[in-house]
Amino acid sequence: NELKSVQTAVKTENKRAILPLLTGSLSAPISEKRIISAVKTAAEKEDRKRNVIIYGVEESETEVLPERVSGILLEIGEKPVVRDSCRVGIKKSSTIRPIKFTLSSSDVVSQVLRKAKLLRLKDGFKSVYVCPDRTIEERR
Q1: Other Cβ atoms within 10 Å of 89 Cβ, number
Q2: What is the maximum alpha-carbon separation in the chain?
Q3: Residue-wise pLDDT tens digits, 45-59
Q4: How far is CA 32 from CA 6, 39, 51, 56, 136, in A?
Q5: Which residues, 6+ apart, have CB-to-CB distance to 47 below 8 Å?
Q6: What is the C-alpha separation between 92 and 1, in angstroms, rounded?
């Protein structure tokens, strides 16, 4: 519970709330490792909340990822601005690497994720899945 309050204070960048949490005014002391972990986790979640991952899109040597991502999003009726996109992982001939892309805000990400299930109804996209970008802990 106290760890959550540290994460919330870090996430909202409320420095006045962080200071008492770190100076020992807690009912039980929190180890330095747990504090550092909480700060890193909150920062990582903040970085990831504008990212989306697409699984199952075939790779080609001449692909232009921003156009490819925009085309997929058009299939579900969305036209957001794709700020950045890349394939994630090591390139192997036996696997299809997921596409990670960044949108302008977390609200746009939520809207895309709500409509993502419509993609499975489209021809050629039955095995394409759109998911939020999650931390390693959240993936477990």
Answers
A1: 10
A2: 59
A3: 888 899 999 999 999
A4: 12, 11, 29, 41, 21
A5: none
A6: 43
